[in-house]
Design goal:
Layout (H helix, E strand, L loop, with lengths): L2 E5 L5 H10 L3 E5 L3 H8 L4 E2 L3 H5 L4 E4 L4 H8 L14 E4 L5 H13 L3 E4 L2 E2 L1 H7 L2 E6 L2 H12 L2 E8 L3 H29 L4 H9 L6 H5 L22 H18 L4 H15 L17
Parallel strand pairs: 1-2, 1-4, 2-3, 4-5, 5-6, 8-9
Antiparallel strand pairs: 7-8
Helix pairs in contact: 1-6, 4-5, 8-11, 8-12, 11-12
Bound molecules: nicotinamide-adenine-dinucleotide.
The site of nicotinamide-adenine-dinucleotide has 27 residues, from helix 4, strand 7 and helix 6.
Length: about 290
């Protein structure tokens, strides 16, 4: 049986790992927070003492960490994981990180004879739980074929975006667009409600009209409009605003590197920074709604 090491069991990693368990893979899991590890152990996973212990005997490694520095810290250097993973193994790095950071990890993996893919995801915590994530993959097509059965247990759509780092480029573009849509939706909701409309009625009209978008379909930022959206649970769970600010920063770095004009992305980053400065970084990113209400 394929033994998988899964590292990083946060909002996304935990439900993704759970789907691998359900699909019958043997899992050894590690997170800096022991509670997440215990939860999966009670469902059949093995607990690892640390990341090194997790990869012992594994032929596949999946990681889902917050940002570039965590990923580089985990894999690179003399005591990094790439020095401990067996050559010929497959590494699926699913965090959203800088494309350059991903390329650095790719190069170090190649030097050790390890197949690595950058495979960031879209679909949020609901998609992670349902096993319907979209994977945007960067790296060799042969490695993607090897990874297909594992990714299929966690996601529905697999896209080969291109060579090393291309998955991260696609993800950064997607999240810039998502942030712009979320801010626009929050602004329109606040305008309508301030002008006397019922938020649920307005949300439904816009959802079915030309302003319709993903945030109106699945993730309305106005509390009470969608029962299961983070906005209706005090903006808890979901995708933290500080992670969205990180992704918008990555988009601005990409824009700088390519001399691209991204005024909407730049403004979105500024608005998320403001939200963070107000102490809301740990809330879901739909809490950007707070900038538009008293
Ligand atoms: P999170 O903060 O909830 O989870 C990250 C986990 O990594 C935490 O449990 C943390 O303890 C663990 N961790 C950090 N460093 C570690 C290390 N060295 N070893 C072991 N564990 C370590 O974040 P998340 O929401 O699960 O997001 C993870 C990644 O996925 C981010 O890059 C994010 O941008 C991306 N993402 C998130 C969503 C979402 O909706 N939450 C959607 C798509 C992509």
């Amino acid at each position: 049986m394929t033994q998988i090491a899964f590292i990083g069991l946060g909002h996304m990693g935990l439900p993704m790992a759970r789907n691998l368990l359900k699909a019958g893979f043997a899992l050894k899991v590690f997170d800096l927070l022991p509670t997440a590890v215990s939860e999966l152990v009670s469902e059949g996973a093995m607990a690892a003492r640390d990341a090194s212990d997790a990869v012992q005997g594994a032929t596949v490694v999946v990681s889902m960490l917050p940002a570039s520095r965590h990923v580089e810290g985990l894999y690179l250097g003399d005591s990094g994981l790439l020095a401990q993973i067996a050559p010929g193994s497959l590494v699926l790095e699913c965090s959203t990180i800088a494309p350059d950071s991903a390329r650095k990890v790719h190069a170090a993996a190649k030097a050790r004879g390890i197949d690595l893919l950058d495979a960031p995801v879209s679909g949020g915590t609901a998609g992670a739980a349902a096993g319907t994530l979209t994977f945007m993959v960067g790296g060799q097509a042969e490695a993607l074929e090897k990874a297909r059965p594992i990714l299929a247990a966690m996601g529905k759509n697999l896209f080969h975006a291109g060579p090393d780092g291309a998955g991260q480029v696609a993800k950064v573009c997607n999240n810039q667009l998502l942030a712009v849509q979320m801010i626009g939706t929050a602004e329109a909701m606040a305008l309508g409600v301030a002008s006397g409309l019922d938020p649920a009625v307005l949300a439904e009209i816009m959802r079915q009209s030309s302003g319709g978008n993903w945030t109106l379909e699945k993730y309305n930022p106005w509390p009470g409009v969608m029962e299961n959206a983070p906005a209706s649970k005090g903006y808890s769970g979901g995708f933290m605003a500080e992670l969205m600010a990180k992704d918008l920063g990555l988009a601005q770095e990409a824009a700088q590197a390519t001399a691209s004009s991204t005024p909407m992305g730049a403004l979105a980053l500024q608005l998320y920074r403001l939200l963070l400065k107000q102490g809301n970084g740990k809330l879901d990113f739909s809490a950007v709604q707070k900038l538009f209400v008293e």
